[in-house]
Design goal:
Blueprint (H helix, E strand, L loop, with lengths): L15 H5 L2 H6 L4 E5 L4 E4 L1 H7 L3 H4 L4 H4 L5 H7 L4 E7 L5 E9 L10 E8 L1 H13 L3 H24 L11 H15 L7 H16 L3 H10 L12 H4 L7 H8 L1 H9 L5 H12 L20 H16 L10 H11 L6 H9 L1 H10 L2
Antiparallel strand pairs: 1-2, 1-5, 3-4, 4-5
Helix pairs in contact: 10-11, 10-16, 10-19, 11-15, 14-15, 15-16
């Protein structure tokens, strides 16, 4: 989940609860989250944070984080010295739990009075146990992980170099809204083991179709940033349904389909362009061109362009990658399916753009494996 904090915004502490991190969203996140002022005093936290400390919210608020975590491993205090940081700790006195600690600041200059920080605890105990078990089975695992890490770092560096020459886009893309969108989409993605990097691939496919359709660069960037939130409503879908390997019953399908409305309800109250775009996408990416989609059964150009684009990208990614209920389709079969669904499930013009640039779409899928 650490990549979700790639961008930091510049919003004052008074607006954090009211505009960004609503109580409902915070408490829906399973990871403990603490919201701090620039002086490291805690101003809010979610239910998971209260459970971690075994304290009530009223007892946690206004405490100085450095004092509260003084008896905890040194990594937490050290991380608070930086506007952005990530470290891992082990709590031997708390049932042998391991955590990844992430700090993100509202201002790069963390000395500003209106600055704020988010301190997140991500439980990685299972991950640590799995690593130890695999290490016992394969002594070369460390070299494999190192090679993979170097490969990822090289890819990140390549992308940074490619983006360095682009004009500065709308500053909205660097605000806390974008950070929150990626954080929540990562939470949803982590619940479905078969969809690793699904939201990243959908974002890049949406960027591709937006560019091919002729959207202005700033609109394409908003589309790509909002697309990962298309399934945020699945945060309310039970794991038994979300991760079910076989076909869903009619009752389960009805519950699953509610995720589009739930996602809209989470996001649409904001006046921020990025959050409003994400709300529309969450609401309409399961609508069909012929009007037989859900939740509202709207058709044609009554469906927002962003919803039509993400609908194609979401289905393309689902077909070319394995899921718990199906194997990956060969690209020939995927092409045949989109030819069949053009003008019924999908916007025919957007479908033509996808099929005319199928090699580029496949390359995006391969890049984000």
């Amino acid at each position: 989940m650490a990549y979700a904090f790639r961008w930091a915004g510049t919003m004052g502490t008074d607006n954090i609860q009211n505009t960004i991190i609503s109580r409902a969203v915070m408490d829906a996140v399973m990871d403990p989250i603490f919201v701090l002022r620039a002086d490291d005093h805690i101003i809010d936290c979610n239910a998971a944070a209260c459970s971690l400390l075994e304290m009530d919210l009223t007892d946690i608020r206004n405490q100085q984080a450095r004092q509260l975590f003084a008896q905890w491993p040194d990594g937490i205090i050290a991380a608070l010295d930086f506007p952005e940081a990530e470290t891992e700790i082990e709590l031997r006195q708390r049932r042998q739990r391991s955590y990844r600690i992430t700090v993100v600041s509202g201002h790069k200059d963390h000395e500003r009075e209106d600055g704020w920080k988010i301190l997140m605890f991500n439980d990685i105990t299972g991950e640590r146990q799995l690593t130890r078990e695999l290490s016992d089975m394969n002594e070369n695992l460390e070299q494999i992980v190192l090679a993979r890490t170097e490969s990822l770092q090289a890819e990140i560096e390549r992308r940074r170099e490619a983006e360095a020459g682009l004009q500065e886009v709308n500053r909205e893309m660097a605000t806390t809204q974008r950070e929150l969108l990626l954080t929540l989409s990562s939470v949803v993605e982590s619940r479905s083991r078969e969809t690793a990097n699904h939201v990243a691939r959908v974002a890049e496919l949406a960027r591709m179709l937006g560019n091919l359709h002729g959207l202005p660069p700033e609109d394409t960037d908003i589309l790509a940033a909002a697309a990962p939130m298309h399934d945020v409503g699945k945060i309310a879908v039970p794991d038994a349904i979300l991760c079910k390997p076989g076909p869903l019953t009619s009752e389960e399908r009805a519950l699953m389909q509610k995720h589009s409305t739930t996602g809209y309800e989470i996001l649409h109250r904001s006046e921020r362009p990025l959050l409003r775009a994400a709300a529309v996408i969450a609401h309409e990416h399961h609508e069909r061109w012929d009007g037989f989609g859900y939740p509202r059964g709207i058709s044609g150009e009554k469906i927002a362009l962003s919803g039509r684009i993400v609908a194609i990208c979401d289905v393309f990614d689902a077909l070319v990658n394995p899921r718990v209920y199906k194997a990956a389709w060969p690209i020939r079969q995927v092409i045949e399916q989109f030819h069949k669904d053009s003008g019924t499930a999908f916007d025919p013009d957007l479908t033509r753009l996808l099929l005319s640039n199928i090699d580029q779409a496949v390359a995006i899928n391969d890049l984000w494996q």
